[in-house]
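Why show two proteins at once? Because comparison is the fastest way to build intuition. When a single record is shown, students tend to memorize it. When two are placed side by side, the eye starts asking what differs. So, the first record is below.
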Amino acid sequence: MIATTYPGLVTFIAERAEVPVETVVPDRPLEVLELDSLTMVEIALFIQREYGIDVPEGDLRLGQTLAEWFTYLDGRAGR
């Protein structure tokens, strides 16, 4: 399953959004979690630190789904 590739990211997003981790699902746009631009920067820094994947500003957007983020990250990681 796609969420197993980046389980820490799902948990991190849920913590920042202050929602149960079960509500952070792959096929739902992340904008429903009401994250702000500062949180997006925190997420990008988390990805860099935890997975070693550089995420240029603006590449991850709230209108995308988590599945789209995972596909993007897999591409950046060369998977």
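Second record. Ask yourself what differs from the first in the token line.
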Amino acid sequence: MSRWEISHQYTGITDVMRMNILNAINIAIDTYGKSEMYKIASDVKRWLETTSGKEWCVIIGERGRYQCASTYYDSKYLVVKELNLQWTIEIFQQIP
């Protein structure tokens, strides 16, 4: 998966879960297209809440053009750079 660069992966996100998340993002990008960041984030959030509990947050921004201040629960936190689209994607659970 040379399209992805993992910036942060805390222990609450297993390697298997990370691979499933990246697959869900790929499917959402293919479904909605690269101009629909909000729909992609919403779709991945909905999938995470169905498979991994409630209150997930998915933030997608163009690299270098946004900042995020957030509070995550425990160690369920993942930051991925999508290299083709130049996106940074932050994923975290807010509460258990």
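One difference worth noting in the second protein: The domain at 4-93 is CATH 3.30.740.10 (Protein Inhibitor Of Neuronal Nitric Oxide Synthase).
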